[in-house]
């Protein structure tokens, strides 16, 4: 490793490593274990399928405990210290789904594009180039790449995969932002969801072919079934949230489904339906984060049901401790 590469790593606050001895010293894992997990990493995964929203199977590749531990170390000590593009709003510290939706709320037309098989599309050569570019030598870049990939690509289920996917999409983000930004089009990316918005529908429609070409040139593939453009006549939806000119939220239809789940807790007097309880608790946490107005409505509804049906499962729902403060703020705004 050259002095310039060592200096580059040190200046970035990254651990300087030239060989397995350095890696072993920093991680307190033996050279033998590191070598075995790197050379035969594909054998240390458990593979299974879970259904997507569409019903199609999604392959999950879960690393074994030791490999997952090493991947977590790489994530915490190396990858999390690297910056992603300004357009990236998902799977990055300090960002959330709100950051992805907020820039688009004043637009009159929204285009959403989904990248097909995002993680599997990030091949090992892109991962290798990330580690090499930040200053690691060929040997350590290969070791890191082996440890973070499975069957030649990023595994869906590996701790490093989201951050490595975001880093590998840096060029994609920069190229798209450079093209649409100077044309008055707002662009953000939340993992594999690309969102574009503007106040002029024709301006956006004219750019779709070039945007598509940039994506394909980056060796990524668009999912046509999830490509959607919406103007004033259709619900403008960004990463699951419906936006208006001034705000965003889950929308009336989704809220009614959540309300129905809440009411269903009053129909069961047996204290055993933990799945439904956990689902409602999850919705409350989500609402509090992305749609405070409907969160207040749901909380008020739960309080009224607890008074009417104290002996049912609704009594086990715990409202977050800041509910009164949130309700007060919302009421004041209204």
TrEMBL record:
Cell inner membrane keyword on record: no
Catalysis: reaction(s): DNA(n) + a 2'-deoxyribonucleoside 5'-triphosphate = DNA(n+1) + diphosphate
EC numbers, comma separated: 2.7.7.49
CDD domains: RT_Bac_retron_II (cd03487)
Protein name: RNA-directed DNA polymerase
Residue stretches making up the Reverse transcriptase domain: 31-243
Species for this entry: Flavisolibacter ginsenosidimutans
Keywords: Antiviral defense, Magnesium, Metal-binding, Nucleotidyltransferase, RNA-directed DNA polymerase, Transferase
Record flagged with keyword Nucleotidyltransferase: yes
């Amino acid at each position: 490793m050259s002095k310039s590469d060592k200096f580059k790593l040190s200046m970035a606050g990254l651990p300087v490593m030239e060989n397995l001895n350095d890696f072993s010293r920093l991680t307190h894992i033996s050279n033998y274990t590191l070598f075995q997990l790197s050379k035969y990493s594909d054998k240390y995964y458990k593979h299974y399928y879970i259904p997507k929203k569409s019903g199609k199977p999604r392959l999950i590749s879960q690393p074994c405990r030791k490999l997952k531990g090493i991947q977590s170390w790489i994530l915490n000590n190396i990858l999390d210290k690297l910056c992603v593009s300004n357009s990236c709003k998902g799977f990055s510290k300090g960002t959330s789904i709100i950051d992805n939706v907020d820039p688009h709320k004043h637009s009159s037309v929204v285009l959403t594009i989904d990248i097909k098989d995002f993680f599997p599309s990030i091949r090992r050569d892109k991962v290798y180039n990330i580690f090499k570019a930040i200053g690691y030598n060929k040997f350590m870049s290969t070791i890191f790449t082996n440890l973070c990939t499975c069957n030649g690509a990023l595994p869906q289920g590996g701790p490093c995969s989201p951050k490595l996917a975001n880093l590998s999409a840096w060029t994609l983000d920069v190229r798209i932002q450079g093209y649409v930004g100077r044309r008055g089009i707002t662009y953000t990316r939340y993992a594999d969801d690309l969102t574009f918005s503007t106040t002029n529908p024709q301006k956006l429609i004219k750019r779709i072919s070039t945007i598509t070409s940039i994506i394909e040139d980056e060796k990524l593939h668009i999912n046509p079934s999830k490509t959607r453009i919406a103007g004033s006549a259709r619900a403008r939806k960004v990463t699951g949230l419906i936006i208006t000119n001034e705000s965003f939220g889950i929308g009336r239809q989704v809220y009614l489904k959540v309300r129905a789940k809440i009411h269903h807790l009053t129909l069961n007097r047996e204290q055993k339906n933990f799945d439904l309880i956990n689902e409602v608790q999850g919705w409350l946490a989500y609402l509090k984060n992305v749609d405070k107005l409907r969160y207040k409505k749901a909380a008020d509804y739960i309080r009224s049901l607890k008074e009417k049906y104290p002996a049912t499962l609704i009594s086990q729902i715990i409202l977050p401790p800041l509910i009164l403060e949130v309700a007060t703020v919302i009421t004041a705004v209204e």
